[in-house]
Write a structure and sequence with these properties.
The protein is of the alpha/beta class. The protein contains nine helices and seven strands, in the order E-H-E-H-E-H-E-H-H-E-H-H-E-H-H-E.
Length: 239
C-alpha cells in the first residue's frame, strides 16, 4: 500500500531534494508551493510515474493552513514542515508585518497544519513528522534574531509533540541544517562563502541532498526508536 507525504516548500532547494529522495523511497507526494508553480510542475515531470500532486497556499497568511488542508484528499503518513524564509538585518529594521509573517510561516501555520492532519495518523497509530529547522534555532544568530526565535520555537514544538504523540505511535523529529547550498546563500559574496567554509570543521558548504538523506533516515524503520530529536546537519559548525 502506498504511503503519502506532504512536503511544504517543495519548490525550494532542500524541499526539492527531499521530494526526490522520498519519491525514490516509494512515497506518493503532495508538493506544496506558494509562488513557484513552474518549479513544482518541473519537479513533477522529472519524477515521472511517481504519484504526485501540486498544492498551493501562502503559509505566511492566516488562512494558509486551511487552504492547504482543503487540497489534501487522502490520509498522510508523513508531514515534512520545510517552508521557510529568512530575514537578514537588525531587528529594529524589521516591520511589524515582517515579524508577524515570520511567526505565522514558521510556527503558527505548522502547528495548525499538524493539528488538522494528525487524526488519521493517531487512528492508525503510525506516522512521522519532520521539521526542517536551522542551526540558528539551536545557537541563535545576530541579525537573524526573529528567524532564530521561530526556529527555536520549532525545536521546542518537536520535543513537546514527540512526547504527546509517542503513545500513538507517531514519531516527531527535526533536522537542523547549517550552511547548505541553496538560494538562501545567494546574498553572500564568494569571499563571504569562502570565509564561512573556513569556519566549518568539515571545510565545505553542505548539499541539499545531505539534508534529504537525513530526513529519509528519520522516516525509516532504522530510526524506529528515535523521536523528539533535533539532528544537526552542519559539518561540525557551531556544534
Amino acid at each position: 500500500m502506498m504511503k503519502y507525504a506532504l512536503i511544504t516548500g517543495a519548490s525550494g532547494g532542500i524541499g526539492t531534494s527531499i521530494a526526490r529522495q522520498l519519491a525514490s523511497d516509494g512515497y506518493g507526494l503532495f508538493l506544496h508551493y506558494h509562488q513557484n508553480k513552474l518549479l513544482v510542475e518541473g519537479l513533477r515531470e522529472e519524477l515521472g510515474d511517481v504519484w504526485s500532486v501540486a498544492v498551493q497556499a501562502d503559509l505566511a497568511a492566516a488562512d494558509g493552513a486551511d487552504r492547504l488542508v482543503a487540497q489534501i484528499d487522502r490520509p498522510l503518513d508523513v508531514i515534512i514542515h520545510n517552508s521557510g524564509n529568512s530575514y537578514y538585518g537588525l531587528i529594529t529594521d524589521m516591520s511589524d508585518e515582517d515579524v508577524q509573517k515570520m511567526v505565522q510561516l514558521h510556527v503558527t501555520t505548522p502547528v495548525l497544519l499538524t493539528k488538522k492532519l494528525l487524526p488519521p495518523m493517531i487512528r492508525k497509530k503510525s506516522g512521522n513528522i519532520v521539521v526542517v529547522s536551522s542551526i540558528w534555532g539551536l545557537t541563535g544568530a545576530s541579525c537573524e534574531v526573529v528567524y532564530s526565535m521561530v526556529k527555536g520555537g520549532q525545536n521546542a514544538f518537536v520535543k513537546a509533540l514527540a512526547k504527546e504523540l509517542a503513545p500513538s505511535g507517531v514519531r516527531v523529529n527535526a533536522v537542523a541544517p547549517g550552511a547548505i547550498r541553496t538560494d538562501m546563500l545567494q546574498s553572500f559574496s564568494e569571499e563571504e562563502l569562502k570565509k564561512m567554509e573556513e569556519e566549518i570543521p568539515l571545510g565545505r558548504i553542505g548539499e541539499p541532498n545531505e539534508v534529504a538523506q537525513t530526513v529519509s533516515f528519520l522516516l525509516s524503520d532504522a530510526a524506529s526508536y528515535i523521536t523528539g530529536q533535533i539532528i544537526s546537519v552542519n559539518g561540525g559548525w557551531y556544534c
